[in-house]
């Protein structure tokens, strides 16, 4: 089965509302609107509503960077799945390593979010990946397996068109150190195997993105790696030129 390539830009805590609108406008001027590649902008919460409006009637999509698992209640500072869905947000990043490590989000909490999102219209971009210490201790496979099993526990069903996994080795995020082609190939193979064990052939069809210092110079070689269905991009998604170059590489890539 051919999986549509996906490019998601995770802006993290960057860009005001005005800057977000202007940025997306510049990308729209340079990138042909088509249905062959899924391009997702994940701005901060404060820009979501206006970016959804700016991109209305285009093939570009909008994702949030976080969500709470409960539908409503006394959770100061949190945003629910329905709130995102009601303004036209289509995707949400869950389990990003910065949420896991800076905000102490556990596999259990991440799983609750995944369950809430999986039964909604939103599509999770579920992030997993090992730290440098774990890799150096030979624990990469174990961590990948655990994060998948715990994060995707208790899911009644899985629709590969409504679920995305992103492999992001923590040591490669924002460091300029990209995982090697062999490391990425090995991790993606293990991820696909774990997904197949849990969900059968549907599991294998779940797109798996690579993330961690992706830029216009390494995108092509990473894209050639078996099992890489696209990218989750931080730093390079903030610059019009870099992001457009990566999009062009993905669009022109012969599969
Ligand atoms: P980076 O970030 O591309 O800046 O390494 C990736 C991410 O955090 O998703």
In short:
The chain has helices at about 15-30, 45-55, 80-85, 95-100, 105-120, 130-135, 140-150, 180-205, 220-225, 240-250, and strands at about 5-10, 40, 60-65, 90-95, 125-130, 165, 210, 230-235.
Task: Spell out the key features of this protein.
binds 2-phosphoglycolic acid, 10 helices, TIM Barrel, 255 residues, alpha/beta
Describe what this molecule looks like in 3D.
- There is one protein chain.
- The protein is globular, with a radius of gyration of 17 Å.
- The chain has a single domain (6-27, 36-240, 248-252), classed as TIM Barrel.
- α1 packs parallel to α2 (45-54).
- It has 255 residues and is α/β, with parallel strands linked by helices.
- An 8-stranded parallel barrel has the order 1-2-3-4-5-6-7-8, surrounded by 5 helices.
- The N and C termini lie close together (12 Å).
- It has 10 helices and 8 strands.
- It has helices spanning 17-30, 45-54, 81-86, 97-101, 107-118, 132-136, 140-151, 181-204, 219-223, 240-252, and strands at residues 6-10, 38-42, 61-64, 91-94, 123-128, 164-167, 208-211, 230-233.
- The relative contact order is 0.15.
- The structure holds 2-phosphoglycolic acid.
- 2-phosphoglycolic acid (PGA) binds at residues 10, 168, 173-174, 211-214, 232-236.
